[in-house]
Amino acid sequence: MESEKKILSFLKPDLVEKILQESTVQEFPKGTEILRAQQYVKVLPIVLDGLVKVYSKFEEKELLLYYIEPAQSCVMTFNAALKNSPSKVFATTETDSKIILIPVQLLPLWLQEYPDFNELFYTQYNLRYTELLETISHLLLDKMDKRLYDYLKRKSALTSTNSIKMSHSQIANELGTAREVITRVLKKLENEEKVVQNAGEIEIVGEW
């Protein structure tokens, strides 16, 4: 309980107590799908530990939208819950994760009673908007080798490891490109001694 309070310490103590009383804390193994598109949202997640990937699908291709880190929530889930509309996104645990699940029927009342609960989601909207602008900038200005390198660095930082275990197809899905492109660009980065590939792992060994 104390660890949960520490993660939620950015909220006022009375709200933290309310959340812990009314919500469920659940642990999910890596790769667990916790939300599907077109599913009605029943609970709002706040990640306590671990990492959750939020993404969309277009013609069976995945496109990474953002990651939810500890002390963060999902603005897309929040929006769908308030409007009582189906989710437009998928969410899957990227690592073993501990998540607090808030029943969505409590949201309207809490948003009125606790101003800092509103602040949580204003902050999340601002964060995601900033990330969106950065993504657009990458798409418009950066070549694929820089985009891929920055993606791997970001992934490394999020998972606290220098070795990324992902297939070329998985990376291609998250970057919205073809597997063949990722394979070719990774080889280029390897020749430039920026990464090393070995047995399904990619390790960052050099700076840009």
From TrEMBL:
<dbReference type="InterPro" id="IPR000595">
    <property type="entry name" value="cNMP-bd_dom"/>
</dbReference>
<feature type="domain" description="HTH crp-type">
    <location>
        <begin position="158"/>
        <end position="206"/>
    </location>
</feature>
<keyword id="KW-0804">Transcription</keyword>
<keyword id="KW-0805">Transcription regulation</keyword>
<keyword id="KW-0238">DNA-binding</keyword>
<dbReference type="Pfam" id="PF13545">
    <property type="entry name" value="HTH_Crp_2"/>
</dbReference>
<dbReference type="GO" id="GO:0003677">
    <property type="term" value="F:DNA binding"/>
</dbReference>
<dbReference type="InterPro" id="IPR036388">
    <property type="entry name" value="WH-like_DNA-bd_sf"/>
</dbReference>
<dbReference type="InterPro" id="IPR036390">
    <property type="entry name" value="WH_DNA-bd_sf"/>
</dbReference>
<dbReference type="InterPro" id="IPR018490">
    <property type="entry name" value="cNMP-bd_dom_sf"/>
</dbReference>
<dbReference type="GO" id="GO:0006355">
    <property type="term" value="P:regulation of DNA-templated transcription"/>
</dbReference>
<dbReference type="InterPro" id="IPR014710">
    <property type="entry name" value="RmlC-like_jellyroll"/>
</dbReference>
<protein>
    <submittedName>
        <fullName>CRP/FNR family transcriptional regulator, anaerobic regulatory protein</fullName>
    </submittedName>
</protein>
<dbReference type="InterPro" id="IPR012318">
    <property type="entry name" value="HTH_CRP"/>
</dbReference>
